[in-house]
Amino acid sequence: MTESELIRWIRNQKQDESPFVLKGVGDDCAVLDPSPQSRLVVSTDVLVERVHFRRRWMHPYLLGRKALLVNLSDLAAMGALPSACLLTLTLPSDLTGGFFRAFMDGFLEEVRRWKTPLVGGDLSRGSSVHVGVTVWGHVESGEPVYRSTAAEGDAVVLVGDVGLSAAGLNLLKREDPTELADIRKEAELAAWAGDAFRWRCLKAHFLPTPQIQAGDWLRRNGFASAMIDVSDGLTIDLRRLAGDSRLRFEPGPRIPLEPGLTDHISKEAALAGGEDYALLAAIPGDRLERLRNEYPGHLPEWRHLGSLRQADADGSMETDPAPGFDHFARRP
């Protein structure tokens, strides 16, 4: 298919209308109109073949779903709701047929699920698959939650799980996953995984859940003084949350991990593996008991990890490198 035919295919796909979108696909720019009371937040991220995924491990339909999900996680960390998105897709010319359509089927499925209309983007030919997504979100009233506005004495809580995605990646590396390239249904993936826990790990890696509802609830109800999503590993993102507020993290008696997780990977790998897309929130200490009593039961469980304290007397904030994923770190 030519570029014009690909764009025409995208424009012909049905999407839910959004009051924020005045002009979507088909012009030089999209036009959004948030209400005067709201704040518009924007984030972008990429998925690069052989860095973030392997085509021989993952059906393009699942890749399309994941491409939007991982970007929505940044909105969750601001306490924002999704508004719209852009997609930049680079493909080898032999992938403009079935691969493209399957990828777009998955991407547009999540667009509809999260009410995040695709309003434009770019298509290009390249030697490998490269997916770039920009997401806009909105905060309907008040301010977004920043990662730099925590205060001394705040508790740090984790919403969601860490380590499962790293265990899922380890599973793919240990076994022969080449048949997964032909599997798009979750039930078939679960059957391949073989048991419920291995399926949870595989699903966490392929189809993470952005904590949009939890981030929105924590912001609207005044519980979160600061938030960050866990994308590069719990250890390094804890350090970022504390450091950006010029504080240090003091862990509690233990960092909770899923029972049975360390049967699959080490504790260190679970804490540093990345791609968890859980949510870290700083909660004023005097609101922690209220959070226990008022947190909705339908939202993912939260766990108390520790607290934020003043920097050391010499002003240091434990700036030694923390384990976690860094694209440009030296590799052994």
Task: Explain how this protein is built.
By secondary structure, this protein is an alpha+beta fold. The protein folds into two domains: 3-139, 60s Ribosomal Protein L30, Chain: A (2-Layer Sandwich), CATH 3.30.1330; 146-324, Phosphoribosyl-aminoimidazole Synthetase, Chain A, domain 2 (Alpha-Beta Complex), CATH 3.90.650.10. Helices cover 32% and strands 22% of the residues. It contains ten helices and eleven strands. It has helices spanning 3-11, 60-78, 98-113, 164-174, 186-193, 196-206, 212-220, 234-244, 267-272, 288-294; strands at residues 21-23, 31-32, 39-48, 81-91, 118-125, 130-139, 155-159, 226-230, 247-251, 278-283, 302-310. Strand 4, helix 3 and strand 5 form a beta-alpha-beta unit. Helix 5 (186-193) crosses helix 6.
